[in-house]
Amino acid sequence: MENKKLLLGLLILYYILSLVWNPIFFQYQQILAGLFLIIGLAVVVGFIMFYYWTNVKLKSLLVVPYFLWLIFATSLNAYILIKN
């Protein structure tokens, strides 16, 4: 697989974003910061899914439900920000 360092960096970024989003959004109730974090999370997952499509082909489809959930969760986060 090409760009192993890029993939490792993206996976570390994904891990950090997914760890940080929950306490920022739920515990500290920082809705705007949570929105930026979950947008970043969706972008990272989408990028990994599409950029590495040539290497993993149909296995990328296993990530699609999670990616769609991230899009839905992002819209919920934005709705909460707008309505409050």
From TrEMBL:
The membrane topology of this protein is: Multi-pass membrane protein
Compartment(s) = Membrane
InterPro entries assigned to the protein according to its UniProt record, in alphabetical order: TspO/MBR-related_sf, TspO_MBR
Is Transmembrane included in the keywords of this UniProt record? Answer: yes
Specify the superkingdom.
Bacteria
Q: What are the TM regions of this chain, as residue ranges?
A: 6-24, 31-54, 60-82
Keyword Transferase in record: no
Q: Which controlled-vocabulary keywords does the entry list? A: Membrane, Transmembrane, Transmembrane helix
Q: What is its main location?
A: membrane
* Similarity-based family: Belongs to the TspO/BZRP family.
Q: What is the protein's given name?
A: Tryptophan-rich sensory protein
Naturally occurring in which organism (per UniProt): Gelidibacter pelagius
